[in-house]
Amino acid sequence: MVFSNLGWPEIAVLAVLAMLVFGPERLPKVAADAGRLIRELRKMASGVTNDLKSELGVDLDEIRRLDPRRFFDEYDEDPEPAAAKVLSPGERAPFDPDAT
Fold first, then answer.
1. Cα–Cα distance between 53 and 51 in angstroms, integer?
2. pTM of this structure
């Protein structure tokens, strides 16, 4: 959602501004028109999504998976990082001759 980061104070300020700009007699019509516009935009967006799915023959989740920011998400499944592993008494630490 576009306005998901708005809190109640911001919504109250927007409501007061809308009341001042449009007035109490025109505000219900403006709100209804805005709701209709948002509904139409969502319908068009879902239509575009469905058209892309049917034309490309690829699910959009597969395309989102190619996002470079999400590339390493599937490799971050190690529940315990290497630094947090505790050696048992008498156990030697792993040695990598190439790292030294």
1. 5
2. 0.48
On the 0-12 / 13-18 / 19+ scale of CB atoms within 10 A, 27 is middle
Give the span between the Cα atoms of 67 and 74, in whole angstroms. 12
Q: What is the pLDDT of residues 4-47, one digit of tens each?
A: 778 889 989 988 999 999 998 999 999 999 999 999 999 999 99
Residues 6+ apart with CB under 8 A from 18: 27, 30, 31
Tokens describing residue 1: 């959602």
Alpha-carbon span 88 to 86, nearest angstrom: 6
> What digits encode the pLDDT tens for the residues 57-85?
777 777 777 778 777 666 655 555 555 57
